[in-house]
Amino acid sequence: MAERALGKMLDLMERTVSLEFRVLGGRVFAHHAEADRLDRQTIELKCEQSGSFLTGSSVIIGDEHHDRVSLFAEDDEDRDEGKPVEMEDGWQLNQIATMLNIHEVDADWIAQSATKHDGKPLVGRFEYFPRINTDDGVVNDKRPSASAWIGVGPETFRLLRERMLEFKKWEFAVAIDVLFPEGTVESGFMGRTVRWDGSKPLDVQSARIVWTKEDWSPDFHAKECLAPKAKADAAYDPPREHLELISRIERLETQIQKLATPMWTAAVLLLVLIFLTKR
């Protein structure tokens, strides 16, 4: 019995993958009032999967055969015409947009959710939407999309809404822990690789929203010691020759000023004399 419980716990840990997202933008929706809830608002964030290259998780969804997405081109059409088009199977999550909806929930909602889901309330859901291309060309998606939602308490919701509306440059990141189906997660030296068909919505086990201000690293003092410190400039003590030269220049300037005063006086008197003589 204990071995079965341990095996189940290890299986859940293996299949739960933390997806980190950087926030690219967002908007707030205000909904009409209802009898049981007068103030209804939701937050939608446009996110892009991020994470470390060495320790992050690579998520490949579906098996659609499509053109390989260039990580450096500004647009899918921005490619060299002479080069052959590279193809790949499945879409990597970091190449498509993920729309995250955040709802405000309370204790009653959590209790009702726990009743519907065997005593454990639902944190959120993660879902994949393949791209749609119709024959008439009315709908022509360049890429698929992913969507997720999570529920947060009133205080957390207000904090997120105020901070999001106040700043133009987003300073927070989002992470959600998604439970993927059996056989979809592969562990390797460079991290974990997920190959998921994207057929059904997945449960979100937990979620985190992190704000970062200035230097939050715990090894700040260690980095400060390693950084070269600028040496304080010593007080400048000019040599004796320099002081003597400056003294001579000052004396010369004084003599020139004494000589210049009589010359200007004589010039003025000469001009006055010429003026009186002509009269």
Low-confidence blocks of residues: none
- Compute the number of helices: 5
* Biggest sheet overview: 7 strands, mixed, barrel
Q: Strand sequence of the main sheet, in spatial order?
A: 1-2-5-7-6-11-8
N-to-C terminal Cα separation, in Å? Answer: 132 Å
**What is the SS-derived class?**
alpha+beta
Helix content: 25-40%
Radius of gyration: 36 Å
Total strand count, please? 11
The chain-level mean pLDDT equals 81
Explain this structure to me?
It is a single chain. The chain has about 280 residues and is α+β, with helices and mostly antiparallel strands. Helices cover about 30% and strands about 35% of the residues. The strands form two sheets. A seven-stranded mixed beta barrel has the order 1-2-5-7-6-11-8. Strands 4-3-10-9 form a four-stranded mixed sheet, with no helix packed on it. β9 and β10 form a beta hairpin. The N and C termini lie far apart (about 130 Å).
Task: Please supply descriptive tags for the structure shown above.
alpha+beta; 4-stranded mixed β-sheet; 279 residues; 5 helices; 7-stranded mixed β-barrel
List the helices and strands and how they pair.
Elements: H1 2-15, E1 16-31, E2 40-49, E3 58-67, E4 87-92, E5 98-104, H2 107-116, E6 124-129, E7 145-152, H3 154-166, E8 172-179, E9 185-188, E10 191-196, E11 202-211, H4 220-226, H5 240-278
Parallel strand pairs: 3-10, 5-7
Antiparallel strand pairs: 1-2, 1-8, 2-5, 3-4, 6-7, 6-11, 8-11, 9-10
